[in-house]
Give the backbone structure.
Amino acid sequence: IMYAKSFRQLLETHHFHLYTFPVILLIITHLFALTSLKEKTKILLIILCFVSALIHIFVPFLIRYVSTSFHWMMPFTALGFGVPILFMILWPMIEMWSLRDKKDNSLLLSE
């Protein structure tokens, strides 16, 4: 941060992210929950995403009002959110569009 952000600036950013992160996660995790992965794997990734997103939203307040030594948390929480959510976006598409299961394609074929 080049200059200290005011409480109002932090609150504006916080307010936007506090609304959008859960909505995006709700949609993506619902689709991800329908995949064929083990339940423990799905639960672990979903919890990791939610916890990382929650911490990532509140870290700017820690940096600004508690100590600047919390700055190291920003990239780690971003990775903790970004990597699992990327996997949760890509895995349903891989399962949905994979060609390994051709058992019931009769609905797609016109005769």
About this structure: Confidence is low (pLDDT under 50) at residues 106-111.
